[in-house]
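worker-3 :: picked SDR family oxidoreductase
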Amino acid sequence: MSTPAALVTGGATRLGRHFAESLADAGYDIALHVNRSRDEAEEVAEGIRAKGRDCELFSCDFLHDDVGRLIEQVTQRFPKLSVLLNSASAYTPAPLAETDLEMLETQFRVNLFTPLLLTRHFASAVDTGQVINIIDNKVAYHQYPYAAYLLSKKSLAEMTRMAALEFAPRIRVNGIAPGVVLPASQRTSDYIDWRIDGIPVKQQGEPDHLVQALHYLLNNDFVAGQILFVDGGESINVEGRHSENYPG
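worker-3 :: tokens ->
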């Protein structure tokens, strides 16, 4: 009961799984949020328990369920809850011209409203703690083919800064903006190579790069309200047009 605990949303798959496992390695018991990926979540939980840490699954549909109830359930099970990691995400690409209300509602509910409400209830339930929001390095751009998704993530970045001010000093709030780390399975090798060519350090990221960022934010108590871009410099690689690069 004295072990610190972390709630990881979307912790059954992809980056969420890496974050949950690394937090367990760091000595946290894990409250693993799950919606549809139940089998994957059970596998993650089994692995965390094998590390000697406690892990329990908590079901919540962020489109329909009360997320405040999720915090209640977690704190009842893990009274020493001290970390909220918002990793769950909804992603449907579409330009503004093809974005309808349902798409907006789905992506904003999962990517902004849920982290905001979870942060609110977390801050009410714990004495001290940390919130880390997983954002996206796309927030540095205006990529309209991902309109609803990107607008929701840009809003999450701003919410991160607002919450850092409102809940300090009890709660530190920060974000991580990953770059090319775990590309979608449908991405071709040619596409990945093309993306890497636009990254100043000329390499694809690994989940461990994000895990290192996570632990930096957890362990440095003088960092608050920051969005840590872990993308090899991709998000700053926008030189713009000027007289010296004019081809004419």
